């Protein structure tokens, strides 16, 4: 990519943004992933290696926060400063927009709704948790949907197969949607009591009618179970689908270099830039 830029254009390059799942090796049972492959990511500082290889500042963010950043700057955030953002992919990620900024937290994991405790699933395809509670990503993730389709004998070995199953409205998809909405509603009720935001934005790696079904069902479930002292937030589809994380990652260098709202990741980027110059 650098070879495609002229010398003048290279001077305008402010850095590289990376979006990736944090602590990927921690959720192998819930996601049905092979440990020998995915645990390696927890022992690799990819952003640091890339920064040293290219002598450019690299800004790394978890994929949920990166996707929420894209939504904040180019999507619903243009009209609403405060919202909860959910992204349904292989796992489920999220982010929190407050006062026009993305909340990161002490470790960059604010908005990581996937680890919120929820009651165990009633689907026979879901592995039983070790304790009393399960976590949301066991029930609300595309991996959980694929696992249930396989249990019911459906072929869903790639994105095309999965979307075809959704478009055909297989009974197994409906069973999983019921379970997913129940778990999401429980997690969101707790989250909204703490954050009190007016909007929930939901996006996904895949569609085929799945996103509209989730938004509609979740809004209805939340409204039916809302406490009299609490209103129900607006629910909306996300803007960018499977590109959300990449668009958010590409925004990170501009945001952390130029935005007056930029927080601690900017300092990390500057330290890396200074270290590269010193080297």
Specify the CATH homologous superfamily: ATPase, nucleotide binding domain
* Radius of gyration, CA atoms, in whole angstroms: 20 Å
User: What's the CATH topology name?
Assistant: Nucleotidyltransferase, domain 5
Q: Major sheet, described briefly?
A: 5 strands, mixed
Return the structural class: alpha/beta
Mean pLDDT: 85
Percent helix among the residues?
Answer: 40-55%
Low-confidence stretches are 264-279
Q: How many structural domains can be distinguished in the coordinates?
A: 1
- CATH class categorisation: Alpha Beta
**Strand proportion:** 5-15%
Keywords summarizing the entry:
279 residues, alpha/beta, Nucleotidyltransferase, domain 5, 5-stranded mixed sheet, two-stranded parallel sheet, 14% strand
Describe the structure.
With 279 residues, the chain is an alpha/beta fold. The chain is globular, with a radius of gyration of 20 Å. It is built from 11 helices and 9 strands. It has a single domain, classed as ATPase, nucleotide binding domain (Nucleotidyltransferase, domain 5, 2-Layer Sandwich). Helix content is 44%, strand content 14%. Helix 5 (63-74) crosses helix 10 and helix 6 (142-151) packs antiparallel against helix 8.
What is the structure about, briefly put?
44% of the residues lie in helices and 14% in strands. By secondary structure, the protein is α/β, with parallel strands linked by helices.
